[in-house]
Amino acid sequence: MLKEIYFDNSATTKPSQNVADKIQETLLKYHGNPSSLHAKGFEAETVIMCAKRHIAELFGCEPGEIYFTSGGTEANNLAIFGAAHARKRLGNKIVTTAMEHDSVLSPCRELERQGFRVTYLEPDSKGCIKIEQFLNAIDKETILVSQMMVNNEIGCRLPTEAVRAIIEKKHAPALYHIDAVHAFSKIPVKISALNADLITITAHKMHGPKGIGALFCSRNTRILPILFGGEQQNKLRPGTLATALIAGFGAAAEEAKFAPEMLKKIEKLWKRCRELLLNIDNAKINEVSHHFPYILNVSILGIRSETMLHYLSSNGIYISSGSACSNGKKSHVLEAMGLSKDRIESAIRISFSKYNTLKEVEYFVSKVKSGIRKLCKSK
């Protein structure tokens, strides 16, 4: 029997030992305020600049285009509110998708209350949003287009590289924002290919610490701040920088240089897990177009998500029923895809990391089978 299996990596990942060591070293050795004009402050600032360089190298951008935040939620809020209010004289329309993370959807709903118009593009039954939908939605009044690169619940890849061309074709004054929280460090997220103005990332989805994220903001892009009270980070995101967490973020980014090889390993885990689950009568894979192998969503018909989740947890296996931020609410992503009520209420999400193995996959599926036998009998 395996001691513990962690398949909830889309909620958060386990920090690597190198990341943990870097955070501890920074806390103890580089404890100065990076804004202080003395030697200890300069030491802390040097640590931050080193981390920025590692993150910028993954992006293919300049270190000065990286702005640190408290995480992906703050970065998304800064991008959306900052862009909308900076461009409101040019139009009042925002285009996004119905399958975004709530840290995008909630700001968009708030902007609707403020008088902005928001178009939510709907996915098909396999989570696909077509380029034609963006083409039809974007117009001369569009000031912001915001979409995720990879969906956090079902693991589908959304079209990103063609959106800039559509914005230009429609002569829209729109800024282009990508939520790359689940894609960054796992697949290429290069500025040269995406041509985005704003990109959100966070450390704890890539074996870094919680509480630190970042927003790429192109040097040619102007957005307005949502926080006030300091000169840090060009006043766009003021406040004392969390040096130790930033150092951990940089260490995680430095380790992520091996992502292409890791993607092949994760693909094997995804394929094996899917293959084994397909052999279970009650299990229905919630298939997606353009799949992202770090995430697999499956419905165990007849057993509520929470019930299976708790059964697996009692056996040392940790998964989720969807986004950790939703706190158990019904998945708006699966609803947008038009899945039936029983598929939605029985859906679980398996999400992999570099620490997972084929042996863990096989043990997990064996426990799903025993869970079905036990839980169906108890009804």
Beta strand %: 5-15%
Count of distinct strands: 12
Task: Give the proportion of residues in helices.
Answer: 40-55%
How would you classify the helix and strand content by structural class?
alpha/beta
Name of the CATH homologous superfamily of the largest domain: Type I PLP-dependent aspartate aminotransferase-like (Major domain)
**CATH class division of the largest domain:** Alpha Beta
Strand order of the largest sheet: 2-8-7-6-5-3-4
Distance between the termini: 27 Å
Could you explain how this protein is built, in words?
The longest helix is centred in the N-terminal third of the chain and has 21 residues. The strands form 3 sheets. This protein has a 7-stranded mixed sheet with strand order 2-8-7-6-5-3-4, with helices on both faces. It has a 3-stranded antiparallel sheet with strand order 9-10-12. It has a two-stranded parallel ribbon with strand order 1-11. It has 2 domains: 129 residues, Aspartate Aminotransferase, domain 1, CATH 3.90.1150.10; 240 residues, Type I PLP-dependent aspartate aminotransferase-like (Major domain) (Aspartate Aminotransferase, domain 2, 3-Layer(aba) Sandwich), CATH 3.40.640. The chain has 13 helices and 12 strands. α7 links the parallel β6 and β7. By secondary structure, the chain is of the alpha/beta class. The protein starts with a strand and ends with a helix.
In short:
The chain is of the alpha/beta class and 379 residues long. Helices cover 40% and strands 14% of the residues. Helix 10 crosses helix 13 (358-377).
